[in-house]
């Protein structure tokens, strides 16, 4: 109720100064965290921080909040991962083997949760496959939930260690998989055709297609939609930076 009826008036008054809104938003988050530590509340500080962030996301100033607290957020995330890293004991073969097994299970389940859904919604197999490859890692929010479970004695320290190693393996491997996603897609298509003697035709990356696609290689400025702001930007390029027009790629859709 306080966030719904009182906070809008407070932020409306403080909207004249971005710095004042930043201080008020941080004060709101710390207030919710302190309130959660009271005995009759019974919430964790992590859950209280999540609730306060959800409340702030409902305001139209959330974009300004994200821009201002980005460096503070990265600093505390770094401290969080340092704290998690210090909890890891010396690596053992058993823990790493289990982490590799869990990572393989995650990669297989991704094809059910992402590829099957995208394909069922009408997306082609190339889009579904590349999306699955790009989303092969697990979220760092899983580490937060797992650390909370260990604090409440719901899981053991061994589970947290396995999850941390799984996160590390997938984070490192996915950075290479994203860079070679089209190559991996082509290899999967060729393997599928060899096994079933049919399968999706390998469509090359549009940036790598010869002939007509060669003039789109350097178009790394992408505009999603073309309306008033995009038209003003293109007009500015035409008058002041005409060399940027060769790097411009506009994606728009008109129902006619």
Describe this structure in words.
By secondary structure, this protein is mainly alpha-helical. The chain is built from 11 helices and 2 strands. The protein has a two-stranded parallel sheet. The chain is flat. The two termini are 46 Å apart. Residues 206-215 have low confidence and may be disordered.
The general outline is flat
What distance separates the N and C termini? 46 Å
Largest sheet: 2 strands, parallel
Summed over residues and divided by their number, the pLDDT gives a mean of 80
How much β-strand is present in the residues?
A: under 5%
Uncertain stretches: 206-215
Strand arrangement, largest sheet? 1-2
* Class computed from helices, strands and strand pairing: mainly alpha
Radius of gyration based on Cα positions: 24 Å
Element layout with pairings:
Layout: H1 2-14, H2 18-36, H3 45-57, H4 62-68, H5 70-87, H6 93-120, H7 125-134, H8 141-151, H9 157-179, H10 181-196, E1 221-224, H11 228-240, E2 248-251
Parallel strand pairs: 1-2
């Amino acid at each position: 109720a306080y966030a719904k009826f009182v906070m809008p008036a407070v932020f409306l008054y403080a909207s004249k100064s971005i710095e004042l809104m930043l201080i008020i938003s941080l004060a709101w988050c710390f207030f919710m965290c302190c309130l959660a530590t009271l005995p009759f509340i019974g919430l964790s500080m992590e859950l209280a921080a999540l609730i306060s962030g959800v409340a702030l996301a409902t305001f139209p100033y959330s974009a300004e909040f994200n821009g201002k607290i980005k460096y503070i957020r990265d600093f505390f995330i770094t401290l969080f991962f340092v704290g998690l890293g210090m909890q890891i004991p010396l690596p053992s073969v058993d823990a790493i083997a289990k982490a590799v097994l869990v990572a393989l299970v995650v990669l297989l389940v991704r094809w059910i949760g992402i590829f099957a859904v995208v394909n069922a919604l009408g997306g082609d197999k190339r889009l579904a496959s590349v999306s699955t490859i790009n989303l092969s890692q697990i979220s760092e929010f899983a580490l937060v939930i797992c650390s909370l479970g260990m604090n409440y004695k719901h899981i053991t320290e061994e589970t947290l260690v396995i999850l941390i190693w799984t996160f590390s393996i997938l984070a490192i491997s996915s950075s290479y998989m994203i860079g070679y996603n089209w190559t991996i897609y082509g290899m999967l298509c060729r393997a599928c055709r060899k096994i079933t003697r049919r399968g999706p035709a390998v469509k090359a990356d549009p940036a790598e297609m010869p002939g007509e696609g060669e003039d789109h290689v350097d178009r790394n400025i992408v505009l999603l939609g073309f309306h008033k702001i995009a038209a003003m930007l293109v007009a500015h390029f035409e008058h002041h930076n005409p060399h940027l027009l060769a790097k411009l790629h506009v994606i728009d859709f008109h129902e006619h």
